């Protein structure tokens, strides 16, 4: 669904929820990176070492979506 079909209030609500989810996901990824470092130091390379790499692209996509919503909101002002 295109962002132009949303009302301004819906976009603001979507942006607020996206920012909250992005913050939570960023904290989880940061914790995963810390855990991966400790796991690698203790046990060597394992699945946990590379686990954060699977989640980083999703966060990048979410960040890009937030920027698109912000751009749409600035166009409407």
Quick structural overview:
The protein has 77 residues and is mainly alpha-helical. The chain contains two helices and no strands.
Description:
This protein has 77 residues and is mostly helical. Helices cover 86% and strands 0% of the residues. The chain is built from 2 helices and no strands. The chain has helices spanning 8-43, 47-76. Helix 1 (8-43) runs antiparallel to helix 2. The mean pLDDT is 92.
What order do the helices and strands come in, and which of them pair?
Blueprint lengths: L7 H36 L3 H30 L1
Record field, number of beta strands: 0
Give the count of helical stretches: 2
Indicate the mean pLDDT: 92
Largest sheet: none
Structural class: mainly alpha
Radius of gyration from the alpha-carbon trace, in angstroms: 17 Å
Task: Describe the structure using short key phrases.
2 helices; 77 residues; mainly alpha; single chain; elongated
